[in-house]
Amino acid sequence: MTSTTYRSPLLDLPGAAPLQDTEALIDATGVAWHYGDPLGEQRRAHSGVVVVDRSHRRVVQVTGPDTEEFLNNLLSQKFLDTAEGFGASALDLDMQGRVLHHADVVRTAEGVLLDVPSAQLESFLSFLQKMVFWSQVEVAEAELAVLTLLGASGDVALPAAVVASRQVDWSAVERRDLLVPRSELKAVVAELRAAGVEPAGLMAFTAERVRALEPERAADLDEKSIPHEVPSFIGRGDRAGAVHLEKGCYRGQETVARVENLGRSPRVLVMLQLDGSAPENPTPGSDIAGPAGGRALGRIGTVVDDCDFGPIALALIKRSALTGQELCVGDVAVMVDPASLPEEQGEQAGRAAVNRLRGR
């Protein structure tokens, strides 16, 4: 499959409609955006369970006796001593700590599976393969597809064809990702439907992703983005996130450590409420400005209609703009959702040490 030619077999289900907006920037090629009732499909996830086709994502498999150490030395997540079923995310950063790739991961009995947006597969796979050197690992694309259960799925019996599953720790409706052989995609969904789990389009998933402040790199980040701009990326407490703060030995860790211990990122990812009376939603990538225009205060990312909030969006915005001031994207008024504001972590250890040396 390729990102430009892929067509999911689930597009043959009744009512299936792909995303038509070519400016959305969302990775949605070849899967259903909805099945005829987009807002209703999202709402059903809050009262039951739905299955979302995310088979347009691509999966990399790493196997071999050095798998844990190999990935631990390259990516921001801690892979050492992880148990089968461990699920989290991981980032590949450049030397300046900027985000190059964002993968969801799950530990299996054979190794580790990492799924990425289709447009990132080639560069991510190439990076991992070039870093093998003398490590006893094999890195290859796996013919697996991603399905996501939204809703309380604890009582749902998983089809036998499911290769791996991960419970995703995010702040929106309960989410469980399934990895299944591509050849079994239709059969797995048919079995889930027979158990009462109806399909929902990627629009429902995207709305929940925005609620959870979970970015998609192409739509919501840019070439300057660093991990601390996305608070959910940083593993804290029982949440694994995408960045483990107590490990090193990966490219870009110096930036992570510096921001964690000495300062804050100048920008942060938040959710915006959009003026629903506007004739058109803003285009992802557009600048966010104050009411009088002037310099850009941030950029808007994923824009989607939510079953409860109407039009919402993710945005990377300067912390100086998080003061309740009126904001706009073109002619559309927007407001930072207060619930999406980052929690303050208190004085950083490094900053406290500096202040003590300065006698403050």
UniProtKB/TrEMBL annotation:
Annotated keywords: Methyltransferase, Transferase, Transit peptide
GO molecular function annotations of the record: methyltransferase activity
Any one biological process term the GO annotation gives: iron-sulfur cluster assembly
Domain CAF17 C-terminal span(s) in chain numbering: 269-338
SUPFAM superfamilies: Folate-binding domain
PANTHER family in alphabetical order: TRANSFERASE CAF17, MITOCHONDRIAL-RELATED
Protein name (database record): Aminomethyltransferase
Natural source organism: Corynebacterium humireducens NBRC 106098 = DSM 45392
Organism taxonomic ancestry: Bacteria, Bacillati, Actinomycetota, Actinomycetes, Mycobacteriales
